[in-house]
Amino acid sequence: MSLAAYCVICCRRIGTSTSPPKSDTYWRDIRNIIKFTGSLILGGSLFLTYEVLALKKALTLDTQVVEREKMKSYIYVHTISLDKGENHGIAWQARKELHKAVRKVLATSAKILRNPFADAFSTVDIEDHECAVWLLLRKSKSDDKMARLEAVREMSETHHWHDYQYRIIAQACDPKTLIGLARSKESDLRFFLLPPPLPYLKEDSSTEEELRQLLASLPQTELDECIQYFTSLALSESSQSLAAQKGGLWCFGGNGLPYAESFGEVPSATVEMFCLEAIVKHSEISTHCDKIEANGGLQLLQRLYRLHKDCPKVQRNIMRIIGNMALNEHLHSSIVRSGWVSIMAEAMKSHHIMEASHAARILANLDRETVQEKYQDGVYVLHPQYRTSQPIKADVLFIHGLMGAAFKTWRQQDSEQAVIQKPIEDEDKYTTCWPKTWLAKDCPALRIISVEYDTSLSDWRARCPLERRSIAFRSDELLRKLRAAGVGDRPVVWISHSMGGLLVKKMLLEASKKPEMSTVINNTRGIIFYSVPHHGSHLAEYSVNIRYLLFPSLEVKELSKDSPALKKLQDDFLEFAKDKNFQVLNFVETLPTYIGSMIKLHVVPVESAGAEKR
Predict the structure, then answer these.
(1) Could you please report the per-residue DSSP string of 73-114?
(2) N or C, which end of the chain has less CB nearby within 10 Å?
């Protein structure tokens, strides 16, 4: 206002003044114009300065408030424009060019002086408390494998970061780093984002029906008899269940025996188990794994995994499928994107040995940075289950026997009541698994592997009635799986129980005939037999006497007392072991064994457990 008033007054003075002499008038006009222009420029400058200062004050933020907000448990996702030509301002462009110039100077000096180029200047735009996070992220993506492993180790051992810093790693790390963190014992679970949201189920659909559709979409040709059996049983039972649900009735239908054995279970859960067992068999075929992934199987299995948190048997079958799919490296990215790594990282920390071991198998098959071996279905590493810097000096293999399991066989039962009662799935009914706890603690430089395969006393209880697998067939299958797991690359000690000892003998005999398996023979250092029926078992005779009730399985029939097949196996093994550089230790049982809740039997007598020739 004052500037405008001044201009008006000057104009009036010029207009009302008397006309002086011509020369004086000319210079006076110039002076007035200069005064007017100078006043205008000065006033405008003062006005602009005032407005700029006022705007700056209005936009200035309290930096302490910003820092306090950044330290809170928020996830910060900084969005940047994809348009490289976008104008970021002169200051930003100048700063960027300056950083480029500094890095070029440092790189040139490093080459001249032959010094490694430090990455410290990659953090020029990062605040001090964030430097460690971004440096480790950069290091984890290095071309140097050792640098990547060191970065993952440092991340896993860091426990003083704020929550948002763990989340930065979770969002910015690559799949290799994520898998490495999942396989690191000390990793914080905040490194792992929640799995992505699952797709909604279709209208008038259920997980049971979706699972049935997934199974029906898999190829049904060129399958062995057991896969065909499980598939047809699952599809038949699911059809009966769906029809009963829609019709308001519940009908057994199909094969009624599985329902009779699990009468107390919810029918839908039983049908889901049939479908999962069939998909487990399908997942052993690589092309079928591709179909499972393409048809949304990873998401559907994750939905089932969440729904059945209280059913370990369902969860273990799901993990078996994921572990089989992880054997195919081209599916790794899909498995990671679907969120299974985060789920398995949590399962690895479970105090349940079975759950942790299944998760360890999946992550080991995904980890191609530190694991060269592949663990097929039924091969579980009890130690080490995490990444370790401890060099492995030898392998110890545990092979269970008839009606045994990879984990249950090697548990110390804590009371006589647990012996008499029917074994159930609850792991809390048993004490710890001694190979994983005692042996791993006493000998940390060992890789301890436990093997699992299906066996049964009677065809009534066989999971696949069409399955007639002899000792020769099983030994060939196990030998192939163990070789894929790297057994034979270092010294090996075999520990077997019951029929497992017969499998070990058969595997070594078969390996001696195959040049590609020679390392298994050359690196075998010892064999321990726990109550192995080298000359047969009374169990087979007992089963034959009541064969119309038990329908003894092929495994039991092969254990007949003084069986010619067992005699030939024993003679061949003794001849084979004469000039081999390994020791054999036999243990015999002196107490009877409970088979179920009613039968008490001395399965392997002392005279049969002796490994000497008869």
Answers:
(1) S--------S-TTS---HHHHHHHHHHHHHHHHHHHHHHHHT
(2) N
* pLDDT for the residue numbered 120: 44
Tokens 């408390």 correspond to 129
Residue 54: pLDDT band with limits 50, 70, 90: confident
Q: What ranges in 114-224 are assigned the alpha helix state H?
A: 131-140, 145-156, 163-172, 175-182, 207-217
Q: What was the pLDDT predicted at 537?
A: 73
Sorting pLDDT into bands at 50, 70 and 90, what band is 220?
A: confident
The stretches of 124-162 forming alpha helices (DSSP H) are 131-140, 145-156
- Comparing CA positions, the residue from 374, 234, 423 lying closest to residue 317 is 234
Strands (E), 468-514: 492-497
- Candidates 435, 572, 587; CA nearest to 509 is 572
SS3 call for 529: strand
Q: How far is it, in rounded angstroms, from Cα 436 to Cα 385?
A: 10
Q: What is the mean pLDDT of residues 583-596?
A: 80
pLDDT at residue 424 in the model:
43
In angstroms, the CA 68 to CA 78 distance is: 18
Cross-strand partners of 599: 595
- Give me 336's structure tokens: 């990671």
Nearest-angstrom CA–CA distance, 278 and 41: 88
CB 409 within 8 A of CB 497: yes
Q: How far is CA 408 from CA 126, 450, 456, 573, 589, in A?
A: 53, 11, 15, 28, 18
- Alpha-carbon distance of 555 to 459, in angstroms, equals 10
pLDDT per residue as tens digits for the range 73-108: 444 444 444 444 444 566 667 666 766 666 566 556
- Which distant-in-sequence residues (6+ apart) come within 8 Å of 165 by Cβ? 130, 133
Q: Hey, what are 581's tokens?
A: 């550089």
Tell me the CA distances in angstroms from 197 to 124, 308, 385, one per residue in order: 37, 18, 29
pLDDT in tens, 491-501: 999 999 988 99
Average pLDDT, the chain: 78
Q: Encode pLDDT of 221-253 as tens digits.
A: 777 777 888 788 788 766 655 555 544 433 333
| DSSP 8-state secondary structure symbol assigned to residue 475 | H
pLDDT at 19 over 80: no
Output 147 or 126, whichever has higher pLDDT: 147
Q: 455 to each of 256, 463, 470, 566, how far by Cα in Å?
A: 21, 9, 10, 18
How many Cβ atoms are within 10 Å of 427's Cβ, its own excluded? 19
> Could you tell me the two tokens for 22?
């011509």
Work out the burial of residue 142: count CB atoms within 10 Å of its CB; fewer than 13 is exposed, 13-18 middle, 19 or more buried: middle
Q: Identify the three-state secondary structure at position 62.
A: coil
pTM of the model: 0.74
Residue pair 527/491 in contact (Cβ under 8 Å)? The answer is: no
Instruction: Name the residue with higher pLDDT: 29 or 435.
Output: 435
Classify residue 576 as exposed, middle or buried by CB count within 10 Å of its CB (0-12, 13-18, 19+): middle
